[in-house]
Amino acid sequence: MSWEFLDLQTPLGLTLGQIVSLILITVIAVVLERFVTRHLRRFGKRAHLAPNVSNSLVLTFRILILISAALVVVRVGGLTTEWFVAFSALGGAAVGFASQQTIGNFIAGLYLLAARPFKVGDYVRIGAVEGIVQEVTINYTKILTIGNNIAALTNLQVLHRDITNYAYEDERNLRLYCYTFEINFDHSVSAERIAQIFGEVFERYEHLFPKKPSYMLVRSGGFERVYMVYLYVENPKDVFVYRPQIAEDVFKRWDMERAKPRQ
Questions:
Q1: In which domain, by residue range, is 129 found?
Q2: Is 191 part of a structural domain of the chain?
Q3: Number of domains, the chain
Q4: More confident residue, 233 or 7
Q5: One-letter-per-residue 3-state SS of the chain
């Protein structure tokens, strides 16, 4: 069978074979885009991704498919890929440093979505910022802090900082948050009395938590003792409410003990 007819020139300045190739490229690109979009949306539902994150992933892969199709179209149309690369390099030079940051954030965002060190609703500490994760996008992670402010961290910043996720599952497979904070005392009150103070305060709050608060002596020096307090909550917002209350009650009892005359 002769394929010479594909070399026939058309009024568009392209051969019949080139037109057929362009049609095939367009059909393949559309089918691939729909296939990828459908599977990415399913992945977003299974991974419980926020709608904006799922949409960002879909948009990103649509752009990648479009760029790939454009490269093939340019090649089939008779232009060399060197021309396309040169044009792309010129545009890239105009964008400059900002593009590097954007691409870095994009890659970091993909990594966070894949590794999932935390999810929306978790109580986390990222570097010096701690609070409840409100949103995770391709570019930013937003944290609600105890001061009721939103801290927006670029995903590059997130990857370059230490991440602590306070979520865990207890022996009943119940998802809890074990939040820890330190309380310091000098040596004016004995360790026995401090233990009683913790016990009295924790007993008053025990009914509010799925698990009774606890404490542990983590270090002791010549001037102070440092205790780690453990709070177990189901709703991470309870950390905002009860951490300051418990700390205040402990220090009030400690002040009362210090004010007592020594025997």
A1: 123-165
A2: yes
A3: 3
A4: 233
A5: CCCHHHHCECCCCCEHHHHHHHHHHHHHHHHHHHHHHHHHHHHHHHCCCCHHHHHHHHHHHHHHHHHHHHHHHHHHCCCCHHHHHHHHHHHHHHHCHHHHHHHHHHHHHHHHHHHCCCCCCCEEEECCEEEEEEEECCCEEEEECCCCCEEEEEHHHHHCCCEEECEEECCCCCEEEEEEEEEEECCCCCHHHHHHHHHHHHHHHHHHCCEEEEEEEEEECCCCEEEEEEEEECCCHHHHHHHHHHHHHHHHHHHHHHHCCCC
